[in-house]
């Protein structure tokens, strides 16, 4: 089978490797139909993530080819979503909906070589990991597949920011960041009842349009202190009780804290890079920090109906489609912000 | 009237100054009966708080002597508790129970000279600030007055840690710190339904006894990595979903984070001194940070019945009583940990 391999120095290749086989009775083999390129893949591409050489990619969907003897929830032929971490589905953390902390869980291309930007993968703990779009396992319409693909990571990550910040009916919500996670957070905030969503730090015209499509009521292009001043002006000094930090840089995190009203919560999901929070900045105003790595698996089942009904279309974040052989171009385009998020099509 | 004055270099004096008068129609004058010495007074005493020379003290109770024309909730002769910040009682933040962020609020001995370790004080926004023990304003029994005094700061601060961490029925709770706030947090956690409270970082035998009285089920004397290892052992590796940080130092905060189970919350109320939180340490386990400066006023009314009925006795944190003239001795004893928390008696 073919797989993408990252070699460091922003160099991607596509190579032939032996395909996956069932190793444990709880495994499944999935033939991958579509994969996304994630912001955290980009950190790796830029030399700040996994050690090269490595396979790469962790948001993917496809068809079950084969299952181990102990797998009962999926069967060959089922169309499935694969969250960005696998999980056993039975441990204490899985049971309480924090599958990212599963005691047997792991990351694609870390504990095992299999990853999403490839033709197939071995799935550990298939019953705890895979999620079907339909109970009978049938394949959804092509039109909604990109949106279902977002549930494996990017949309459920934005959604986790909104849930962690406690977004509810009538709230004013600030979303910091204009990447695919930020756009997802805008849509998630609206889905959770936000009355007004302000997107901060959006500097590209093309992204403004998408932010509006996703539900942003106001967009500000400034960053740092200027952005805080703009939010103060837009909210008549009230700032917002729900701020969603969707970048992960020191500046964006700091800006998010400054935008929070006293008693408010910063819901953050951008993988923090060099983010150090001075607790004294939180103390006097009782600002909360909540979020982290999204338990995507926990949210998927709740969100599938909204996608299948067409009431949300988070798949719009994939604004260009590539073949697996074009993977190098996909990363280069994303790295240079010529594309918001690449979709890799394998069928 | 007499007031304590802090001069820097751990020097306290008691001096005669002009007494308070009504300046605004919303003011009241309170003759102070009892005052506490707070951990944050100790930061000042050690040169890391307010600028000397200054009056000092912010947890106090007493009798209303006089009220301004617009004051309607208290009258001369009423026995009242005075929270560690004043608040107008009408702004958006007061209405939502975050009186510490009141738009007209302030700290004793900062925006105005009046403070708690003195014979009297002028109280701005008396209607929004003062809380009676009884609706008719009568004086409670001497036996419960120290416990009512704790509601002005120390107990409601420990309570805020527990509320912020989401302590509820059946929880295992770790309290980091053996000061008066930590002891209060132990009692607060039990009041909120905790099944098991582990007190970490308690190094004094005398404090162990008090921690047990306040509700601690287990006590560990270690700090830092050793304490984390002890908690791992005591909880069979589960750690705790509710960790209450009641110190405010970099080490105690770091230890508290390490003691939190995935998905857990560190409720913190220790005024942070040099605490910098690496967001990446929170990210992968979805650890939340919540808390800050306690809205004491918000909690007092709810807690008064438990104190008056004797079901909680947080006043035990005051384990030595001093006259105002002995204020220097009180600070010196607290600074050298010869006393947990001094009670200043003015009647």
Describe what you observe in this structure.
The structure is a homodimer of 347-residue chains. By secondary structure, chain A is of the alpha/beta class. Chain A has 2 domains: 203 residues, Medium-chain alcohol dehydrogenases, catalytic domain (Quinone Oxidoreductase, Chain A, domain 1, Alpha-Beta Complex); 136 residues, 3-Layer(aba) Sandwich (Rossmann fold), CATH 3.40.50. Chain A contains 12 helices and 19 strands. In chain A, the strands form 4 sheets. In chain A, strands 3, 5, 6, 9, 10, 18 and 19 form a 7-stranded mixed β-sheet that branches. A 6-stranded parallel β-sheet of chain A has the order 13-12-11-14-15-17, with helices on both faces. In chain A, strand 12, helix 7 and strand 13 form a beta-alpha-beta unit. In chain A, helix 5 packs across helix 6 and helix 8 packs parallel to helix 9. The longest helix of chain A is centred in the last third of the chain and has 13 residues. Chain A is globular, with a radius of gyration of 20 Å. Chains A and B meet through strand 15, strand 16, helix 10 and strand 17 of A and strand 15, strand 16, helix 10 and strand 17 of B.
